[in-house]
Design brief:
The chain is built from four helices and no strands. The chain has 106 residues and is an all-alpha fold. The termini are far apart.
Length: 106
């Protein structure tokens, strides 16, 4: 099988596909998927563990680094996911922090 461009999305080109080339491309797609999911997990962890301002700063750092390792489609999807997470409201229960307890002694 001959082709001009095997995978223009990841920048690979070849004249002939063989078993080792297909295996390599499968590994690249798998690695890309792992990196995408890792970026999403980092965003989720930051959302639960950071204040709003710090969360936004962490998201910008994640996106800046992700731009170099994800393809355009995955990066666009990650940007959409981050923007949705930024727009979500986070509710903090005052009782959970201990501020709702009475400070008077019996």
């Amino acid at each position: 099988m001959f082709t001009k461009n095997v995978d223009s999305k990841h920048g690979f080109s070849s004249r002939k596909l063989n078993g080792s080339t297909l295996g390599f491309l499968a590994e690249v797609y798998h690695l890309s998927s792992v990196l995408y999911n890792a970026c999403r997990d980092l965003v989720d962890d930051a959302k639960t563990g950071c204040t709003d301002l710090v969360f936004k700063e962490v998201c910008l750092e994640i996106l800046a680094r992700a731009k170099h390792v994800l393809d355009n489609e995955e990066f666009t999807s990650l940007m959409q996911y981050v923007s949705e997470r930024i727009e979500e409201n986070t509710f903090v229960s005052i009782d959970a922090v201990g501020l709702g307890e009475s400070n008077t002694r019996a």
